[in-house]
Amino acid sequence: VCVLFSNGVEMAHDAAADEDSNIIYSNKYFDDVYEYRHVILPHEKIEKLRKFKQRLLSEDGWRGLGVKQSAGWEHYAIHDPEPHILLFRRLLSHPAARAAAAATRPAGMTAY
After folding, report:
1. How many CB atoms lie within 10 A of CB 78?
2. Beta strands per DSSP E along the chain
């Protein structure tokens, strides 16, 4: 799946769209502190998203939109031009994040 953002940036997603709701989950990416991912909601979910009035969503809020992820994820930012793209992060110290980071770490690289 390839997504074109309003700023002209094109990004490939290896993860498949969720069959039931057409939600697209990005691959995970990391820095020294967090594991990140973004989730692209389909246009039919935008009306439901508008009721939150451009604020960060609690776990109950994003799960209520149909987003499915493991524990520890936080909706941490809103990208105003594209509010249907939810930005998530999780501390690398979270057990699930450590396991994901270890699985994607190049051979020979030490732990974070």
Report:
1. 15
2. 2-4, 10-12, 24-25, 29-30, 34-40, 74-78, 85-91
Residue 110 C-alpha from the chain's centroid = 25
Residue 9: band (very low, low, confident or very high) from pLDDT cuts 50, 70, 90: very low
* Token duo for residue 102: 């270890």
* DSSP reduced 3-state for 69: coil
Q: What is the DSSP letter of 22?
A: -
Residue written as token pair 């594209």:
82
In whole angstroms, what is the distance from residue 15 CA to residue 87 CA?
16
Tens digit of each residue's pLDDT (9 = 90 or more) over 51-96:
767 689 999 989 988 999 998 999 999 888 888 899 999 999 877 7
